[in-house]
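Running this now, will post back.
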Amino acid sequence: MKKSIAVLGLSSVLLVGCGSDEVGDVSLGLFTMKDIKLNMMVDPEVPGVTCHVASIEADFSFSDPSDSSISCRQTGEITPEMIATIDTSKNGEVVFKKSKSIFFKAMKIRRIFDKHNQTLMYLSYSTKETSGSFKHSLSTVPLWGTKAYISPETNQKTP
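Update: finished.
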């Protein structure tokens, strides 16, 4: 009886905090309350791109560490119509935001389009300085091989 209660209690603890976008949870040890959470995000404007983000979350803490890592890949079709809907300015646009503190710290993922190289860039960053640095990570998804790719020759003016 005690064994089944312990198993039930442990499984309840493991299920707490699992969001629909959470795809992994790695404990950093028995004596720490910190875990590496692995989340996936599909770009809302370019659904042919999926990003996976790893970040540390600290239970019972007012602020999670700022470190994060991002990896984005083409997981479906990317069309010219999708690229036409995105912000192509040098600042790009925030496509995901997650609070990391009750003190106004957030982790954001910003999509920026490198038109010259026909590449989508995804920048994961913390909005609060930590140890003299703003933590950030970058991943890119080239449009080469997709319907959205525009070759450099096409962009050149003809005489």
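Residues 1-19 have pLDDT under 50 and may be disordered. More later if anyone needs it.
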